[in-house]
Amino acid sequence: MALLPPDPVYTIRNVDNTPVFSLAFNFLPGGLERLLAGSKNGYVYAYNLQTNRVQQKIKVGQAPILHLLHTEDQLITQEKGGNYKIFNLTNSGYQEDTLIDMDYPGFCRFEANTKLKTLYVPDRESQVYIYNFTGEKIGSLKPEFSEPKLGDPMCMKYIELAPEKSYLLVGYEAGWLVLWDLNTSQAIGKLQTKECPMSVDFCKDQQRGIIGNASDVIQIFSIGRKDLSLVHGTDITIKNHGINKVQSRLDAKVFVSGGWDGHIRIFSWFSLRPLVVLTEHKRAIQDVVYSTEKVSMWNANIMAAGGLDGVITLWDLYNQKQ
């Protein structure tokens, strides 16, 4: 390894050591900096990043919060089982505005275009439904081809490759990765991956993407600049099986994987080699996110990771030599 494992800048024990399924940084007007933790018990805990203590407890439902998104004035949550809730942020707190009930049993997280206020929501039989932020269904993505059988959506990534050119990468149960043109609602490319993909991300600057799955291999792929074809690239072998989350860092220098073994692995985009393995967590990592703004406590962009051990770790890795 090129680097010795650093220590986290802070470790948060989630309320009652409740397993953490999803995370989101939240920067609000007035300088309020928070980290939201979607938990197994159906709560979203809002941690104030200036005190690292719970500032607010938001009761969503009874099921684990698989994914969440916070805009300037709305909180969107996804519960295991298919409930999607849209809360409006008011002076008195969060008020539930819309419920979307999909009856979807899987673990695929929704994706969103926050500019157009559009949600991409997974469903059974290879379908993805499109909603606006008011809960109105406005479209769908359904494969027209009968072969190959895709199975249910397992992971998604919204990407913009050019101005007003938006796409959705969808990984399916049968091991296929499909690129959808959101302007035409047509599938324009597909790639057979090694196993059922569990997480996918794409780095526009690198023009490459990452796929994590249940195996001991992380797959790298690319999207052709002219024909938008999906092309298999390098395979990266890791020590233990199972990746729940892959995420590219905003500066396009590194990417991260969160594993079933509780390990967080940081890789160089340039060499595709592991830079460091972080072993602070003792159970599976469920989510890894990067802050889009500097957190004032550390004057740095921070990476947060959470998992089934009920621990949230905060990391300042931007100052490490790459």
Question: Care to describe what's here?
Answer:
This is Guanine nucleotide-binding protein subunit beta-like protein 1. WD repeats lie at residues 278-322. With 322 residues, the protein is an all-beta fold. Helices cover 0% and strands 57% of the residues. It has no helices and 28 strands. Strands 1-28-27-26 form a four-stranded antiparallel β-sheet, with no helix packed on it. The termini are close together. The model has no long low-confidence stretch (mean pLDDT 93).
Broad structural category: mainly beta
Count helical runs: 0
Shape: globular
Instruction: Report how far apart the termini are.
Output: 12 Å
> How are the strands ordered across the major sheet?
1-28-27-26
List keywords for this structure.
Guanine nucleotide-binding protein subunit beta-like protein 1, mainly beta, WD40_repeat_CS, WD repeat, 322 residues, four-stranded antiparallel β-sheet, 28 strands, repeat
Short description:
This protein has 322 residues and is an all-beta fold.
What topology emerges from the helices and strands here?
Blueprint: E1 10-13, E2 20-28, E3 32-39, E4 43-48, E5 53-59, E6 65-70, E7 74-79, E8 81-90, E9 93-104, E10 111-113, E11 118-122, E12 128-132, E13 137-141, E14 153-162, E15 165-172, E16 176-181, E17 186-192, E18 197-203, E19 208-213, E20 217-223, E21 230-237, E22 243-248, E23 254-259, E24 264-268, E25 274-278, E26 285-290, E27 303-307, E28 311-315
Antiparallel strand pairs: 1-28, 2-3, 3-4, 4-5, 6-7, 7-8, 8-9, 10-11, 11-12, 12-13, 14-15, 15-16, 16-17, 18-19, 19-20, 20-21, 22-23, 23-24, 24-25, 26-27, 27-28
